[in-house]
Amino acid sequence: MERYILELKDVSMRFEDAEALTGINLKIKHKEFVTLLGPSGCGKSTMLRILGGFLTPTSGKVLFDGKDITDLPAYQRKLNTVFQKYALFPHLNTFDNIAFGLKIKKLPNDVIKEKVKAMLKLVNLEGFERRRVQFLSGGQQQRVAIARALVNEPEVLLLDEPLGALDLQLRKDMQLELKRMQQRLGITFLYVTHDQEEALTMSDRIIVMKEGVIQQDDTPIKVYNEPINHYVADFIGEANMLYGVMRDDYAVECESLIWRCTDRGYEKDQFIELVIRPEDLEMVPEGQGKAHGIVESVVFKGVHYEIVVRDDTGYDWIVQNTKNAEIGSRMGIDFSDDAIQIMKVSPEYMLPAVIEQAGRKIEGELWITQDSEDYVKSGSGKLDTRFRLHTDSQGKHITTVYAEDIRRTWVLRTDEQLYGTDPIIIRYGSGADAPDDAEVR
User: Which residues have a Cβ under 8 Å from the Cβ of 130 and sit 6 or more positions away?
Assistant: First the structure.
Protein backbone atom coordinates (compact mmCIF):
# COMPACT_ATOMS: atom_id res chain seq x y z
CA MET A 1 0.00 0.00 0.00
CA GLU A 2 1.36 3.40 -1.01
CA ARG A 3 2.15 5.82 1.79
CA TYR A 4 1.00 9.40 1.28
CA ILE A 5 3.13 11.65 3.46
CA LEU A 6 1.31 14.90 2.59
CA GLU A 7 -2.25 15.54 1.49
CA LEU A 8 -4.35 18.60 0.75
CA LYS A 9 -8.11 18.09 0.85
CA ASP A 10 -10.23 20.72 -0.91
CA VAL A 11 -7.91 23.51 0.25
CA SER A 12 -8.77 27.11 -0.64
CA MET A 13 -7.02 30.30 0.39
CA ARG A 14 -8.43 33.80 0.16
CA PHE A 15 -6.60 37.07 0.84
CA GLU A 16 -9.22 39.80 1.30
CA ASP A 17 -10.95 39.83 -2.13
CA ALA A 18 -8.41 37.65 -3.97
CA GLU A 19 -8.60 33.87 -4.26
CA ALA A 20 -5.04 32.49 -4.11
CA LEU A 21 -5.99 28.79 -4.11
CA THR A 22 -9.25 27.18 -5.19
CA GLY A 23 -10.30 23.67 -4.17
CA ILE A 24 -6.84 22.09 -4.19
CA ASN A 25 -6.72 18.30 -3.83
CA LEU A 26 -3.23 16.84 -3.83
CA LYS A 27 -1.51 13.70 -2.53
CA ILE A 28 2.28 13.40 -2.23
CA LYS A 29 3.93 10.03 -1.72
CA HIS A 30 6.73 9.21 0.68
CA LYS A 31 10.18 9.67 -0.97
CA GLU A 32 8.78 11.57 -3.97
CA PHE A 33 10.37 14.66 -5.52
CA VAL A 34 7.37 16.81 -6.45
CA THR A 35 7.60 20.24 -8.07
CA LEU A 36 4.96 22.97 -8.00
CA LEU A 37 5.47 24.83 -11.28
CA GLY A 38 3.88 28.04 -12.51
CA PRO A 39 4.35 31.78 -13.05
CA SER A 40 4.37 34.39 -10.30
CA GLY A 41 1.00 34.68 -8.61
CA CYS A 42 -0.23 31.19 -9.51
CA GLY A 43 -0.48 30.08 -5.85
CA LYS A 44 2.47 27.69 -5.66
CA SER A 45 4.27 29.49 -2.81
CA THR A 46 0.98 29.94 -0.97
CA MET A 47 0.46 26.18 -1.13
CA LEU A 48 3.98 25.59 0.20
CA ARG A 49 3.42 27.99 3.10
CA ILE A 50 0.17 26.24 4.00
CA LEU A 51 1.96 22.89 4.07
CA GLY A 52 4.78 24.41 6.13
CA GLY A 53 2.39 25.84 8.72
CA PHE A 54 3.08 29.50 7.92
CA LEU A 55 -0.46 30.06 6.63
CA THR A 56 -3.80 28.56 7.65
CA PRO A 57 -6.11 27.83 4.70
CA THR A 58 -9.48 29.55 4.48
CA SER A 59 -11.05 26.12 4.03
CA GLY A 60 -9.98 22.52 3.61
CA LYS A 61 -7.59 20.22 5.45
CA VAL A 62 -3.85 19.50 5.50
CA LEU A 63 -2.85 15.93 6.38
CA PHE A 64 0.60 14.65 7.33
CA ASP A 65 0.91 10.87 7.22
CA GLY A 66 -2.88 10.67 7.49
CA LYS A 67 -3.16 13.00 10.51
CA ASP A 68 -4.83 16.41 10.37
CA ILE A 69 -2.20 19.13 10.92
CA THR A 70 -4.19 22.07 9.51
CA ASP A 71 -3.91 24.08 12.73
CA LEU A 72 -0.56 22.71 13.88
CA PRO A 73 2.14 25.43 14.12
CA ALA A 74 5.21 25.22 11.88
CA TYR A 75 7.65 24.29 14.65
CA GLN A 76 5.62 21.19 15.55
CA ARG A 77 5.52 19.81 12.00
CA LYS A 78 7.96 17.11 10.86
CA LEU A 79 9.14 19.16 7.92
CA ASN A 80 11.54 22.01 7.25
CA THR A 81 11.55 24.83 4.71
CA VAL A 82 14.32 26.39 2.62
CA PHE A 83 13.51 29.79 1.09
CA GLN A 84 15.16 31.72 -1.72
CA LYS A 85 16.53 34.11 0.92
CA TYR A 86 18.42 31.63 3.03
CA ALA A 87 18.09 33.56 6.34
CA LEU A 88 21.51 32.43 7.56
CA PHE A 89 22.97 33.97 10.70
CA PRO A 90 25.83 36.26 9.53
CA HIS A 91 27.50 36.32 12.97
CA LEU A 92 27.81 32.51 13.01
CA ASN A 93 30.15 30.28 11.04
CA THR A 94 29.10 27.39 8.81
CA PHE A 95 29.18 24.81 11.61
CA ASP A 96 27.11 26.89 14.03
CA ASN A 97 24.54 27.80 11.37
CA ILE A 98 23.95 24.13 10.61
CA ALA A 99 23.98 23.19 14.30
CA PHE A 100 21.57 25.94 15.38
CA GLY A 101 18.40 23.81 15.45
CA LEU A 102 20.17 20.97 17.21
CA LYS A 103 21.41 23.31 19.94
CA ILE A 104 17.87 24.62 20.42
CA LYS A 105 16.84 21.01 21.05
CA LYS A 106 19.70 20.80 23.60
CA LEU A 107 21.22 17.67 22.11
CA PRO A 108 24.59 16.48 23.49
CA ASN A 109 27.62 18.14 21.91
CA ASP A 110 29.02 14.88 20.55
CA VAL A 111 25.68 14.12 18.83
CA ILE A 112 25.58 17.62 17.35
CA LYS A 113 29.13 17.28 16.09
CA GLU A 114 28.42 13.95 14.36
CA LYS A 115 25.20 15.16 12.75
CA VAL A 116 26.78 18.38 11.45
CA LYS A 117 29.79 16.45 10.16
CA ALA A 118 27.47 14.15 8.21
CA MET A 119 25.63 17.13 6.72
CA LEU A 120 28.87 18.87 5.70
CA LYS A 121 29.85 15.73 3.83
CA LEU A 122 26.42 15.45 2.19
CA VAL A 123 26.50 19.02 0.84
CA ASN A 124 30.22 18.95 -0.07
CA LEU A 125 31.28 21.61 2.47
CA GLU A 126 33.88 19.66 4.42
CA GLY A 127 36.67 22.04 5.43
CA PHE A 128 34.34 25.06 5.59
CA GLU A 129 33.19 24.48 9.18
CA ARG A 130 34.80 27.61 10.67
CA ARG A 131 34.21 29.97 7.77
CA ARG A 132 31.76 32.83 8.36
CA VAL A 133 28.80 32.55 6.00
CA GLN A 134 29.23 36.06 4.55
CA PHE A 135 32.53 34.84 3.08
CA LEU A 136 30.87 31.93 1.28
CA SER A 137 29.71 32.02 -2.34
CA GLY A 138 26.00 32.03 -3.18
CA GLY A 139 26.05 28.33 -3.96
CA GLN A 140 27.86 27.53 -0.71
CA GLN A 141 25.38 29.60 1.31
CA GLN A 142 22.56 27.74 -0.36
CA ARG A 143 24.12 24.42 0.68
CA VAL A 144 24.44 25.64 4.27
CA ALA A 145 20.73 26.51 4.28
CA ILE A 146 19.85 23.06 2.96
CA ALA A 147 22.15 21.35 5.48
CA ARG A 148 20.59 23.35 8.32
CA ALA A 149 17.15 22.15 7.23
CA LEU A 150 18.20 18.51 6.73
CA VAL A 151 20.19 18.12 9.95
CA ASN A 152 16.92 18.04 11.89
CA GLU A 153 15.99 14.89 9.94
CA PRO A 154 12.62 16.07 8.62
CA GLU A 155 10.43 13.62 6.74
CA VAL A 156 9.64 16.34 4.19
CA LEU A 157 11.77 19.21 2.89
CA LEU A 158 9.94 22.19 1.39
CA LEU A 159 11.99 24.34 -1.00
CA ASP A 160 10.66 27.71 -2.19
CA GLU A 161 12.70 28.70 -5.28
CA PRO A 162 16.03 28.13 -3.49
CA LEU A 163 18.10 28.41 -6.69
CA GLY A 164 16.62 31.66 -7.95
CA ALA A 165 19.55 33.86 -6.86
CA LEU A 166 22.26 31.67 -8.39
CA ASP A 167 23.90 32.11 -11.79
CA LEU A 168 22.95 29.77 -14.64
CA GLN A 169 25.75 27.20 -14.44
CA LEU A 170 25.68 26.99 -10.65
CA ARG A 171 21.91 26.62 -10.78
CA LYS A 172 22.23 23.66 -13.15
CA ASP A 173 24.89 22.06 -10.95
CA MET A 174 22.70 22.47 -7.86
CA GLN A 175 19.72 20.89 -9.62
CA LEU A 176 21.69 17.66 -9.90
CA GLU A 177 23.01 18.05 -6.34
CA LEU A 178 19.50 18.40 -4.91
CA LYS A 179 18.25 15.35 -6.76
CA ARG A 180 21.27 13.37 -5.53
CA MET A 181 20.62 14.44 -1.92
CA GLN A 182 16.95 13.54 -2.13
CA GLN A 183 17.65 10.07 -3.50
CA ARG A 184 20.41 9.42 -0.97
CA LEU A 185 18.35 10.54 2.03
CA GLY A 186 15.14 8.89 0.86
CA ILE A 187 12.86 11.71 2.04
CA THR A 188 10.15 13.72 0.32
CA PHE A 189 11.09 16.97 -1.45
CA LEU A 190 8.40 19.49 -2.40
CA TYR A 191 9.97 22.11 -4.63
CA VAL A 192 8.54 25.42 -5.89
CA THR A 193 9.80 27.07 -9.07
CA HIS A 194 8.78 29.02 -12.17
CA ASP A 195 11.69 27.48 -14.11
CA GLN A 196 10.50 24.72 -16.44
CA GLU A 197 13.99 23.26 -16.89
CA GLU A 198 14.42 22.88 -13.12
CA ALA A 199 11.11 21.07 -12.88
CA LEU A 200 11.83 18.73 -15.79
CA THR A 201 15.37 17.96 -14.55
CA MET A 202 14.66 17.06 -10.93
CA SER A 203 11.06 15.95 -10.49
CA ASP A 204 9.27 12.65 -10.20
CA ARG A 205 6.02 14.59 -10.60
CA ILE A 206 5.22 18.10 -11.78
CA ILE A 207 2.15 20.03 -10.62
CA VAL A 208 1.46 22.80 -13.16
CA MET A 209 -0.55 25.66 -11.67
CA LYS A 210 -2.45 28.66 -12.98
CA GLU A 211 -4.35 31.23 -10.90
CA GLY A 212 -4.68 28.99 -7.86
CA VAL A 213 -5.86 25.91 -9.76
CA ILE A 214 -3.94 22.74 -10.66
CA GLN A 215 -3.84 22.38 -14.45
CA GLN A 216 -1.92 19.11 -14.74
CA ASP A 217 -0.37 16.62 -12.32
CA ASP A 218 1.88 14.13 -14.06
CA THR A 219 5.41 12.90 -14.74
CA PRO A 220 7.84 15.31 -16.47
CA ILE A 221 7.72 13.26 -19.68
CA LYS A 222 3.92 13.33 -19.85
CA VAL A 223 3.65 17.00 -18.94
CA TYR A 224 6.03 17.84 -21.79
CA ASN A 225 4.89 15.33 -24.41
CA GLU A 226 1.19 15.11 -23.50
CA PRO A 227 0.09 18.54 -22.17
CA ILE A 228 -3.52 18.55 -21.08
CA ASN A 229 -4.40 22.03 -22.39
CA HIS A 230 -3.09 25.11 -24.17
CA TYR A 231 -1.75 26.71 -21.01
CA VAL A 232 0.44 23.74 -20.09
CA ALA A 233 1.70 23.27 -23.65
CA ASP A 234 2.61 26.95 -23.92
CA PHE A 235 4.20 27.19 -20.47
CA ILE A 236 6.37 24.07 -20.73
CA GLY A 237 8.95 24.76 -23.41
CA GLU A 238 8.46 25.97 -26.98
CA ALA A 239 5.45 24.68 -28.89
CA ASN A 240 3.72 25.03 -32.24
CA MET A 241 -0.03 25.12 -31.54
CA LEU A 242 -2.72 25.10 -34.20
CA TYR A 243 -6.47 24.58 -34.29
CA GLY A 244 -7.94 21.71 -36.27
CA VAL A 245 -10.75 19.18 -36.57
CA MET A 246 -10.66 15.46 -35.78
CA ARG A 247 -12.09 13.92 -38.93
CA ASP A 248 -11.69 10.35 -37.67
CA ASP A 249 -9.55 8.21 -35.40
CA TYR A 250 -5.90 8.90 -36.28
CA ALA A 251 -6.83 11.67 -38.74
CA VAL A 252 -6.84 15.42 -38.05
CA GLU A 253 -7.62 18.23 -40.49
CA CYS A 254 -5.47 21.34 -40.14
CA GLU A 255 -4.77 24.13 -42.62
CA SER A 256 -7.11 22.38 -45.10
CA LEU A 257 -4.93 19.26 -45.03
CA ILE A 258 -5.49 15.84 -43.49
CA TRP A 259 -2.62 14.76 -41.25
CA ARG A 260 -2.19 11.35 -39.67
CA CYS A 261 -1.78 11.22 -35.88
CA THR A 262 -1.77 8.62 -33.12
CA ASP A 263 -4.84 9.87 -31.22
CA ARG A 264 -8.25 8.23 -31.17
CA GLY A 265 -11.49 8.35 -29.22
CA TYR A 266 -12.53 11.90 -30.13
CA GLU A 267 -15.93 12.73 -31.60
CA LYS A 268 -16.04 12.91 -35.37
CA ASP A 269 -15.50 16.53 -36.52
CA GLN A 270 -14.61 17.62 -32.98
CA PHE A 271 -12.85 20.98 -32.82
CA ILE A 272 -9.39 20.46 -31.28
CA GLU A 273 -6.00 22.06 -30.79
CA LEU A 274 -2.82 20.27 -31.72
CA VAL A 275 0.71 20.66 -30.39
CA ILE A 276 3.96 19.93 -32.21
CA ARG A 277 7.27 20.56 -30.46
CA PRO A 278 9.96 22.44 -32.45
CA GLU A 279 12.52 19.65 -32.04
CA ASP A 280 10.10 17.21 -33.72
CA LEU A 281 10.05 19.20 -36.97
CA GLU A 282 12.29 18.34 -39.90
CA MET A 283 13.37 20.80 -42.60
CA VAL A 284 12.89 19.33 -46.09
CA PRO A 285 13.16 20.72 -49.65
CA GLU A 286 10.31 22.91 -50.88
CA GLY A 287 7.45 20.84 -52.24
CA GLN A 288 8.00 18.09 -49.71
CA GLY A 289 6.59 17.74 -46.20
CA LYS A 290 3.29 18.75 -44.62
CA ALA A 291 3.74 22.54 -44.66
CA HIS A 292 5.70 25.01 -46.78
CA GLY A 293 6.91 28.53 -46.18
CA ILE A 294 9.61 31.18 -46.07
CA VAL A 295 12.37 31.39 -43.46
CA GLU A 296 11.67 34.57 -41.47
CA SER A 297 14.42 34.42 -38.84
CA VAL A 298 17.33 32.28 -37.65
CA VAL A 299 18.78 32.45 -34.12
CA PHE A 300 21.77 30.37 -32.98
CA LYS A 301 21.08 28.93 -29.51
CA GLY A 302 24.32 27.01 -29.01
CA VAL A 303 23.14 23.41 -29.32
CA HIS A 304 20.75 24.21 -32.17
CA TYR A 305 19.38 26.90 -34.46
CA GLU A 306 15.89 28.24 -33.78
CA ILE A 307 14.30 28.89 -37.16
CA VAL A 308 10.95 30.60 -37.77
CA VAL A 309 9.22 29.55 -40.99
CA ARG A 310 6.07 31.46 -42.02
CA ASP A 311 3.86 29.12 -44.01
CA ASP A 312 1.47 29.98 -46.82
CA THR A 313 -1.42 30.57 -44.37
CA GLY A 314 0.60 33.05 -42.30
CA TYR A 315 1.38 30.72 -39.41
CA ASP A 316 4.88 30.96 -37.93
CA TRP A 317 6.41 27.53 -37.31
CA ILE A 318 9.22 27.32 -34.75
CA VAL A 319 11.81 24.77 -35.86
CA GLN A 320 14.82 23.65 -33.80
CA ASN A 321 17.52 22.09 -35.93
CA THR A 322 21.28 21.60 -35.86
CA LYS A 323 21.42 22.77 -39.49
CA ASN A 324 21.38 26.45 -40.43
CA ALA A 325 18.92 27.99 -42.90
CA GLU A 326 19.04 31.08 -45.08
CA ILE A 327 16.60 33.89 -44.27
CA GLY A 328 14.22 34.41 -47.19
CA SER A 329 14.62 30.89 -48.57
CA ARG A 330 11.63 28.61 -49.07
CA MET A 331 11.47 25.18 -47.49
CA GLY A 332 9.16 22.39 -46.47
CA ILE A 333 8.40 21.21 -42.93
CA ASP A 334 7.73 17.59 -42.11
CA PHE A 335 6.96 15.61 -38.96
CA SER A 336 5.96 12.10 -37.96
CA ASP A 337 2.47 11.02 -36.91
CA ASP A 338 3.47 10.67 -33.26
CA ALA A 339 4.83 14.24 -33.17
CA ILE A 340 1.23 15.50 -33.06
CA GLN A 341 -0.40 15.80 -29.64
CA ILE A 342 -4.17 16.44 -29.68
CA MET A 343 -5.90 18.55 -27.00
CA LYS A 344 -9.58 19.34 -26.53
CA VAL A 345 -10.59 22.98 -26.90
CA SER A 346 -12.89 24.04 -24.08
CA PRO A 347 -13.80 27.71 -23.73
CA GLU A 348 -13.22 29.25 -20.32
CA TYR A 349 -16.41 31.18 -21.02
CA MET A 350 -18.29 32.65 -23.99
CA LEU A 351 -19.25 36.24 -24.75
CA PRO A 352 -22.17 37.19 -27.00
CA ALA A 353 -20.78 38.90 -30.07
CA VAL A 354 -21.81 40.65 -33.26
CA ILE A 355 -19.50 39.96 -36.18
CA GLU A 356 -19.37 42.46 -39.04
CA GLN A 357 -17.95 41.39 -42.37
CA ALA A 358 -18.48 42.85 -45.85
CA GLY A 359 -21.61 44.73 -44.77
CA ARG A 360 -23.12 41.74 -42.98
CA LYS A 361 -23.93 41.62 -39.27
CA ILE A 362 -23.91 38.11 -37.82
CA GLU A 363 -24.76 37.20 -34.25
CA GLY A 364 -22.64 34.63 -32.50
CA GLU A 365 -20.30 33.93 -29.61
CA LEU A 366 -16.66 34.74 -28.99
CA TRP A 367 -14.95 31.84 -27.26
CA ILE A 368 -12.59 32.99 -24.55
CA THR A 369 -10.03 30.19 -24.43
CA GLN A 370 -6.84 29.97 -22.39
CA ASP A 371 -5.06 31.23 -25.48
CA SER A 372 -7.11 34.43 -25.73
CA GLU A 373 -8.13 35.09 -22.12
CA ASP A 374 -5.32 37.56 -21.38
CA TYR A 375 -5.80 39.42 -24.67
CA VAL A 376 -9.55 39.83 -24.99
CA LYS A 377 -9.56 43.15 -23.13
CA SER A 378 -6.68 44.71 -25.04
CA GLY A 379 -6.42 42.85 -28.32
CA SER A 380 -6.68 44.75 -31.56
CA GLY A 381 -5.72 44.16 -35.14
CA LYS A 382 -7.04 43.14 -38.51
CA LEU A 383 -8.58 39.69 -38.31
CA ASP A 384 -8.44 37.40 -41.33
CA THR A 385 -9.93 33.93 -41.65
CA ARG A 386 -7.11 31.46 -41.76
CA PHE A 387 -8.36 27.93 -41.26
CA ARG A 388 -11.16 25.99 -42.91
CA LEU A 389 -14.52 26.34 -41.17
CA HIS A 390 -16.33 23.41 -39.66
CA THR A 391 -19.77 22.73 -38.21
CA ASP A 392 -20.30 21.43 -34.68
CA SER A 393 -22.86 18.89 -33.47
CA GLN A 394 -25.48 21.64 -33.00
CA GLY A 395 -25.11 22.95 -36.53
CA LYS A 396 -23.14 26.04 -35.45
CA HIS A 397 -20.25 27.26 -37.58
CA ILE A 398 -16.87 27.32 -35.82
CA THR A 399 -14.36 29.73 -37.35
CA THR A 400 -10.82 30.47 -36.27
CA VAL A 401 -9.53 33.94 -37.09
CA TYR A 402 -6.12 35.46 -36.64
CA ALA A 403 -5.40 38.88 -35.11
CA GLU A 404 -2.23 39.86 -36.96
CA ASP A 405 -1.22 42.76 -34.70
CA ILE A 406 -1.13 40.64 -31.54
CA ARG A 407 -0.43 37.32 -33.29
CA ARG A 408 -3.27 35.50 -31.53
CA THR A 409 -6.02 33.19 -32.74
CA TRP A 410 -9.66 33.80 -31.83
CA VAL A 411 -12.54 31.33 -32.05
CA LEU A 412 -16.04 32.34 -33.20
CA ARG A 413 -19.26 30.28 -33.08
CA THR A 414 -22.00 31.61 -35.37
CA ASP A 415 -25.34 30.60 -36.91
CA GLU A 416 -24.27 31.86 -40.32
CA GLN A 417 -21.11 30.94 -42.12
CA LEU A 418 -18.20 33.37 -42.34
CA TYR A 419 -16.12 33.18 -45.47
CA GLY A 420 -13.45 34.88 -47.52
CA THR A 421 -10.67 37.17 -46.36
CA ASP A 422 -12.61 40.40 -45.91
CA PRO A 423 -11.70 42.18 -42.64
CA ILE A 424 -13.79 41.17 -39.65
CA ILE A 425 -14.89 43.38 -36.76
CA ILE A 426 -16.03 41.67 -33.56
CA ARG A 427 -18.05 43.52 -30.94
CA TYR A 428 -18.54 41.49 -27.81
CA GLY A 429 -20.02 41.69 -24.34
CA SER A 430 -23.50 41.87 -22.87
CA GLY A 431 -25.63 43.44 -25.59
CA ALA A 432 -22.97 43.28 -28.26
CA ASP A 433 -24.27 46.27 -30.24
CA ALA A 434 -24.06 48.63 -27.25
CA PRO A 435 -21.85 51.66 -28.05
CA ASP A 436 -19.66 51.23 -24.95
CA ASP A 437 -18.78 47.60 -25.63
CA ALA A 438 -15.23 46.61 -26.33
CA GLU A 439 -14.23 46.13 -29.92
CA VAL A 440 -11.66 43.90 -31.56
CA ARG A 441 -10.60 44.74 -35.11
Answer: 93, 94, 95
Tell me: pLDDT of 435 over 70: no
Q: Is 217 a residue whose pLDDT tops 90?
A: yes
| In-domain check, residue 413 | yes
* Cβ atoms within 10 Å of 306's Cβ, excluding its own: 15
Model pLDDT for residues 250-282, shown as the tens digit of each residue: 999 887 788 999 999 888 888 888 999 999 999
More confident residue, 374 or 5: 5
Residue 237 domain-assigned (yes or no):
no
Give alpha helix (H) positions in 35-189: 44-52, 94-104, 109-122, 138-150, 168-185
pLDDT for the residue 169: 81
Q: Which of residues 343, 360, 391 is at a domain's end?
A: 343
* Count: domains in the chain: 3
207 touches 49 (CB < 8 A): no
67-90 burial code (b ≥16 CB/10 A, e <16): eebbeeeeeebebbbbbbebebee
Asked if residue 293 is part of any domain, the answer here is yes
Are both 270 and 150 inside the same structural domain? no
Residues 382-417 have pLDDT tens digits of 444 444 556 666 777 877 776 666 566 777 888 887
**Residue 79 and residue 288: Cα distance in Å, rounded?**
58
CATH number at residue 26: 3.40.50.300
Instruction: List C-alpha distances in Å: 170 to 69, 93, 198, 381.
Output: 36, 22, 12, 43
| Bridge partner list, 12 | 59
Residue 147: Cβ within 10 Å count: 24
Instruction: Evaluate whether 152 touches 80 at the Cβ level (below 8 Å).
Output: yes
Domain stop point among 324, 343, 362: 343
Per the domain annotation, does 40 fall within a domain?
Answer: yes
Give the CA distances from residue 70 to residues 24, 61, 66, 67, in Å, rounded to whole numbers and listed in that order: 14, 6, 12, 9
Is 205 in the same domain as 290? no
d(CA 189, CA 30): 9
Question: Is pTM, for the whole model, over 0.70?
Answer: yes
Q: What is the rounded CA–CA span in Å between residue 11 and residue 26? A: 9
The CA-to-CA distance between both ends of the chain, in Å, stands at 58
Give the CATH number, domain containing residue 261: 2.40.50.140
Q: Which amino acid is at 318?
A: I
Grouping H, G, I as helix, E, B as strand and the rest as coil, residue 388 is: coil
Quick one: which of 274, 281, 280, 277 has its CA closest to 241? 274
Cα separation, 361 vs 427, in Å, equals 10
